[in-house]
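Practice problem: 4Fe-4S ferredoxin
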Amino acid sequence: MKRTVSKRQAVRQALLLVSLLLFPITLYYFSPALILQGGSEGIVTGSAISFALMFLASLLVGRLWCGWACPGGALGEVCTAVNPRAVRGRRLDWIKWAIWLPWISLLAFLVIRAGGYQRVDPLYMTAGGVSVVDAQGYIVYYGVVGLFFILSVAVGRRAGCHTFCWMAPFMILGRKLRNVFAWPSLRLQSDPQRCSDCMTCTQNCAMSLDVNAMVKAGAMEHSECILCGKCVDGCPSKAIQYVFRAGK
Ligand code: SF4
Ligand code: SF4
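Answer key — structure tokens:
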């Protein structure tokens, strides 16, 4: 039988699956609530460290985390088996900023009120590094998983990434900064001459982008692109490539 998933995409899906399976352990390292609680006590929590690392990584590799390792994104992709519909309408992408800006402002307020950060505790509120160990942990876990699940099933492909993900803005900002300075980084590059307008890339894009139009315009930079590489690996004409180079 013909193999329909490239090796790279098989590796990516395996990594996402592992991340999803580890989510009960890692949940609190991505918590938007514990960073506030820790900030109010002057403590740099595990999630504060994770978000800072995501921002720093995005300066070189954009939103690679979202495409290859995020447990929320993994759940979103699993849900495409139920609802593979594309999420059209870029207005949805702004919802996460309406959530993120008040949230990050509240964090800044709490940290300032606490007199600044005084201590680092990567394992804050975990039990020896494990997040979900009791009933309260399970309530939080199923709340987060349920939100990603319901949105993906009701709205479409990776809907949580578009609408409420509190981690994505860190990486979008990092990538915008990278673009301002145009230093070398991982990105997509297209060759419009090769494109045969088969539309496979647009149909398969994990973030429902009009990849064909991006290819034709020779403009592959998009704040919602997660560098999953589905368009790279699915293009029959090899019109899209990963490159590591300087540029906007
Ligand atoms: S998959 Fe390749 S050939 Fe098809 S529309 Fe996209 S870039 Fe063009
Ligand atoms: S444009 Fe390509 S790499 Fe970016 S999200 Fe869509 S399929 Fe993935």
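Discussion: The CA atoms of residues 22 and 227 lie 22 Å apart. Students who identified this feature from the tokens alone can consider the problem solved.
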